[in-house]
Structure formats: structure tokens, C-alpha cells
Design brief:
By secondary structure, the protein is mostly helical. Helix content is 64%, strand content 0%.
């Protein structure tokens, strides 16, 4: 039985715990959903996120309420966006620090390699 309180964490953990609670293998879930077994594995490890069109079939196969699955998907997308924003900000901060410490914007000889 689905228990939202028992699920702590990510969309991948939700999918994994729901699959295991039903005694299904990744291959069985993949077959039910018409996807490759590595797709299921990537979902469960949060490497990728299921597409919106796949949510209804996933909800049926794993007996997860679709609204909860959609909310978990939205949270996963927001987490990825936040991580990307942080990565960009850290990269920008590193560039600004490099310039503030007197570093050149282009490494020596870089423009030569560009054909300038």
C-alpha cells in the first residue's frame, strides 16, 4: 500500500520504494511502461526525470497517486534548476575573483589559438 509518510526524499526513492514494495524488478516495470530497463534505473537513481506523459502509466504500475507523483516530479525539476543556478553562480564568482586578483581574462596565447 502507498504511504506518503514512508517516502523520504526524492522522486527516485519514491519510485524505487514503490517498485520494491510491489515485488517488481526493474525489467518488469520497464516492460509495463514500454521503456528500457536502464530508463527505470536512471529514474530510481535520480539521474533522469520521467516525462510528464509517462506519469499516468508510472502511477498505475506502481500504485502511486498521480498528483503526488506529479508534485515529486516538479520538486525534482526545481532541485535541478537550483543546482544549475548555483553552478553558474560559483563559476561567475570564480571568474570575478580571478580578475580581482589580477588574473588575465584570457590565458596567455589563448587568442593565438583562436586565429587572432
Amino acid at each position: 500500500m502507498y504511504d506518503p509518510e514512508a517516502i523520504d526524499g526524492t522522486l527516485g526513492r519514491l519510485l524505487l520504494s514503490s517498485r520494491l514494495a510491489r515485488g517488481l524488478s526493474e525489467a518488469e516495470v520497464a516492460r509495463k511502461l514500454g521503456v528500457h530497463v536502464t530508463t527505470v534505473s536512471r529514474w530510481e537513481t535520480d539521474s533522469t526525470i520521467p516525462r510528464p506523459g509517462q506519469l499516468t502509466a508510472i502511477a498505475r504500475a506502481l500504485k502511486i497517486p498521480r498528483p503526488h507523483l506529479a508534485n515529486m516530479r516538479a520538486a525534482a525539476l526545481l532541485a535541478r534548476r537550483d543546482a544549475l543556478c548555483l553552478l553558474v553562480l560559483f563559476g561567475l564568482a570564480a571568474c570575478l575573483l580571478h580578475l580581482a586578483l589580477g588574473g588575465a581574462w584570457w590565458p596567455d596565447g589563448f587568442s593565438d589559438r583562436l586565429g587572432e
